[in-house]
Amino acid sequence: MLLEIPEILTPPQAAEMRAALQQAEWVDGRVTAGHQSAQAKRNRQLPADSALARELGEVILRALPANGLFMSAALPQRVFPPLFNRYEGGEHFHNHVDNAIRRLPSGGQIRTDLSCTLFLSDPGDYEGGELLIDDTYGAHSVKLPAGSLVLYPSTSLHRVTPVTRGSRISAFFWLQSLVRDDGQRTLLFDLDMSINRLRQELGEHESLVAQTGVYHNLLRRWSEP
């Protein structure tokens, strides 16, 4: 499932974050890449251990649970602390697949079930820089308003086209979901959205009790706590 989620951050939050990042000290983006990705990656990145990265990452981590669409689609178990990157002057990221396992800064590791890109630059502020994500139906081009996020399976082949004008700043991170299988996770999301729509139309109708029970029994069967 590939899902675009608007306004994870409000426009003022995104603008404030972008202004802080414009003044940051950036390093070669290949510092966090695996062997394959390092050959394809040409961008800059905020050092993960910098005070600014930790501060802004906490803002994002606090915003995620407040977004019902994100929580329903991702069913997050563990979230990798957000990282921040910048593309300009022709910088790009060729075809790659994200690493399956990431070491957490706090210790331990995370299985990357889902990848997230949170756009912090407005689309009109730069040219190029589209995130292209491949699935069964071809390549999907994603370029979202500042504060909006795209969520997609980490198994996906994806790339970022060269930025030919301006600067593209974004946050990116991965998460381990309670439900590992993308197909199962998509069915749960569709069922949850259907229940919510019916609740809005019918109120607390008796039939929704049974559907909600089906949702939770499937989640109980498929989750890996």
How far is the N terminus from the C terminus? 21 Å
Mean pLDDT level: 93
Order of helices and strands: EHEHEEHHEEEEEEEEEEEEHH
- Taking pLDDT < 50 over at least 5 consecutive residues as the criterion, the unreliable ranges are none
Largest pleated sheet:
9 strands, antiparallel
The shape, in one word, is globular
Using the CA coordinates, give the radius of gyration. Answer: 18 Å
Amount of beta strand: 25-35%
Task: Based on the model shown, name its key terms.
225 residues, alpha+beta, 34% helix
Explain this structure.
With 225 residues, the protein is α+β, with helices and mostly antiparallel strands. It is built from six helices and 16 strands. The chain has helices at residues 11-22, 35-40, 51-63, 68-74, 182-202, 206-222; strands at 3-5, 27-28, 41-42, 44-45, 76-79, 83-88, 92-96, 101-103, 109-111, 114-119, 126-128, 131-135, 138-142, 149-153, 158-160, 163-177. The strands form three sheets. Strands 1, 2, 4, 5, 6, 10, 11, 14 and 16 form a nine-stranded antiparallel sheet that branches. Strands 3-7-15-12-13 form a five-stranded antiparallel sheet. Strands 8-9 form a two-stranded antiparallel sheet. Helix 5 runs antiparallel to helix 6 (206-222). The model has no long low-confidence stretch (mean pLDDT 93).
